[in-house]
Amino acid sequence: MPVHVIVGAQWGDEGKGRAVDVLARHYDYVARYNGGANAGHTVYLGNDPIKLHHVPSGVISGIPGILGNGMVIDLEILINEIHTLRSKGITPLLHISDRAHLTLPFHKEEDVLIDSLKAKYGMRTGTTRRGIGPTYQDKAARVSLRVGDLLHSERLDEKLRLLGDYHQKIIMALGGTFKEEWRSSVLKEKLMKQLNEIKSYIIDTVDFLNKALENGSFILAEGANGVHLDIDHGIAPYTTSSNTIAGAASTGLGIAPSNITEVYGVMKAYTTRVGDGPMPTELKNEVGKRIQMAGNEFGTTTGRPRRCGWLDLVLIRHSHLLNRFTRLIITKLDVLGGIEEIKVCNAYLHEEKGIITHVPSTLEELKQCIPQYITFDGWEALKPQEWKEICEQGYETLPKELRKYVEYIAKQCQVPIAFLTLGTDRGATIYVDLPTEIYH
Ligand code: GDP
Ligand code: IMO
Ligand code: MG
Questions:
Q1: Whole-Å CA distances, 267 to 19, 108, 198, 271, 431
Q2: Which of 177, 269, 374, 401, CA to CA, is 20 to 30 A from 61?
Q3: What structural domains and CATH numbers belong to the chain?
Q4: 13 in catalytic set
Q5: What residues are paired with 344 via a beta bridge?
Q6: pLDDT for position 433
Q7: Is 0.90 topped by the overall pTM?
Q8: Ligand 2 pocket, Cβ-based, cut-off 6 angstroms
């Protein structure tokens, strides 16, 4: 039975949480397959924004959430999330993979130290400082702590001693201070307290998910970050440390690729980016500022202002190539309301190669690219309630300029649109073409 994957087609914050919230009720489970506390997925419960870092966004609709083996989990942040949800009357049904890796306090310290060192050489990534890179580094170095290790006390002692020794050496070499509270005995006590809170959720999620699929369950895999932050496919060093593309749902959940029958690409109607790195369509002017304010473009995890720019279709088409989207979800179309002329980058002009329609693989090449734009007439700015009323009446009642804009995107990408969003509220959604199989 099928797995459908939701992937952010840009640099993160496309509205994946919002999109999952629309779709979740059609699925039996919603599962995260990559990343950890670097992700910040927002779902509005009435006027209340709920910001989720580990917990899959489907829990807001009462759908059980799975934290897959490909994730890196910060228990302190996860437990806070669970408490926040409970305080809002939501008791999340969760299953946490015993194979997922744990982010520990020294990973966060190292994240900052490494990025500061990189900054000296002009290569700062501008990470979320959530210890993501160092946790995945430990996974690759095979010194890491997995969730399942917490259940085996003797092994845990040995692993924590190894980790303490290893990270003390790294932190000191990087000029930092290794804190007493990170020593194995103190850390173990803290982890045991945290374990008490989550023990009942820990299972072999690979076995669980595969049995669920055999029994006919429908699974929605919720990607974190965005395609162009993928460790292999983003531009180094301006990436995160995991694979973010749809293919990673297979490794990060332990399900065969042939189970994936649908890939939703979520894209904002314009482009944003937090942290450092190239952004060809960035608008360092009044229009960029206007989009930032109208779209409330401030990081969900770090509060940093997001850089804003015109829609970059070269980026989106490259995402399509890596993910083979079966449907697009376009978010935040309301934010562009009131801008007289809206531009879309359709190709790059490369200094030596002329017009190119893919994203080059190196920073040096990308720096030589100048975005080529086509211009669209804008549509009027409406109040959230007015957009909701239009949404109730359907696609044909949208301003014609807006329809022209989204139809151009769909045509350029050759991908049908699943739905459009025109506000933070679930009601501000226009359904265009959802896969029929989800109405099982
Ligand atoms: P994610 O990381 O992809 O889940 O996205 P974030 O939650 O970090 O950022 C997206 C932000 O845009 C959130 O604050 C959403 O509530 C908001 N958002 C999503 N869709 C829309 C929309 O259609 N219109 C407006 N105005 N805001 C939206
Ligand atoms: P969601 O799931 C936006 C960015 C960081 C930084 C780079 C590396 O909410 O879309 P990391 O802490 O992962 O080592 O940071 O990646 N980044 C994100 N940007 N949304 C995210 O997640 C991101 N996750 C990581 O800003 O530039
Ligand atoms: Mg986000």
A1: 10, 30, 34, 8, 15
A2: 269
A3: 3-93+205-434 (3.90.170.10), 101-200 (1.10.300.10)
A4: yes
A5: 311, 374
A6: 85
A7: yes
A8: 8, 11-13, 38-41, 125-128, 130, 132-133, 224-226, 229, 240-241, 274-275, 300
